[in-house]
Amino acid sequence: GGFLYSHLQQKVRNAEALAQKYKQQQEALSAQLQVVYEHRSRLERSLQKERGEHKKTKEDFLVYKLEAQEALNKEKQDSMNRYGALSSQHKILKNQHEDVKKQLLDLQLQHNSLKLEHRKTLETHSQKYAQLQQEKDSEVANLQDTVFKLREESKLLRKAHQDVHSQLLNAQAQMEEFRQLKEALQKM
């Protein structure tokens, strides 16, 4: 009976030691699990923050894109109006030039009978012709300068659009990384 009692006490002590060991392991696992939960919670908060920032960035980009498009359309319309005005002026000057040429031809036909008067008139018309030609050249130069400026503005707008597009691509890549991280966390 004593031997059996001693044997049972030894088993009880072994069972208590084993239970204590399991209890310590459970406490350690609980602590690790708590750390994992806290880390996951921080990552989820960070992900929510990044989503909010991405949404704001996307909204800002859409607003910028709309404003840039409106500005481009306005500038395009203004340029077309300026071009139309310059074109009208050019046509007027061209018509005036044709009129001067016609008048010059008429004066040349009257050359025999009005030679002296013709010389005076020809000198006047030559000066007027030179002035009109100079104005025409000036208008053409202004038009070419306007076209050059519009091309430069178009290049700048294209570059701005490419920069914004690159930023959007970077933001999308970050969202993909966060999505993959979230999937990995969900699997964990």
Automatic annotation (TrEMBL):
Write out the entry's keywords from A to Z: Coiled coil
Residues in a coiled coil are 5-60, 90-142
Q: Report one GO cellular component.
A: Golgi membrane
Source domain of life: Eukaryota
- InterPro entries registered for this protein in UniProt: GOLIM4
What's the protein here called?
GOLI4 protein
Q: What organism is listed for this UniProt entry?
A: Syrrhaptes paradoxus
Q: Gene for this protein?
A: Golim4_0
